[in-house]
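Entry: D-aminoacyl-tRNA deacylase
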Amino acid sequence: MKAVIQRVTRASVTVGGEQISSIGRGLCVLLGISVTDTQKDADYMVRKILNLRVFEDECGRSWSRSVMDGGLEVLFVSQFTLQSVLKGNKPDYHAAMPAELAQPFYNSILEQLREAYKPDLVKDGQFGAKMQVLIENDGPVTIQLESPPSPTDPKLLSKQEKQQQRKEKTRSKAPSESSREKAAQRSRGEPSASSGAEGDLSSEREP
C-alpha cells in the first residue's frame, strides 16, 4: 500500500463541477491499494497517517505534532495510479487492486481512520470518479509512505532465497573450522600413537 501525504493549508475535491468535500489546515492523503495488500497494511497506514509529526507545536518547533495532536483535518482520496509500473512511457496498472475489491477495502480503511480519530474531521473524495483535487501544499511538505512488505511478498521471498543460496555455496566451498581442527589433530595424533605402541613392544622384549 502506498500513500502520498501532503501538509496543506487547504484542500478540496470537485466532481462534475461540484465541490463534494474540503478541509482547512491538515493533511491530504492520496492512497493507492495494491493486489497484495491486507488488513495489516491498512493498520500500518492508519497508524502512520494519524501520528505523522509534520506540524509545529505552540512554541513554533517544527516536526513536533501530528494531525491528531492539533485536532486538524484529513482529506482522504483514493489514487490507484500510485500503483503504476511504467512499460516504456506508458503506465501499467496491473499491480493495483481491481476496483470491485478495492472499493470495499478503501471504505473499511476510511471507516477505521474515522474510528481512530474524529469522524467529522476526516473527509474523502469519491471512489472511482474523475476528480479534480485542489491541494494547497504548506511548506511544501510531502511525505511518501509505503507499508512494509509481508514475508509472502514474492520479491522478498526471491531475495531471501538468493541470500540462502549464497550462504550454502560459501559453506560448500570452504570447510568449517571444526573440520580443519579435527583433521589437524588426526595428523598430529597418528605418529605419536605408533611411537607409543612400539615402546610397549620393546619393553616386553627387555629381560
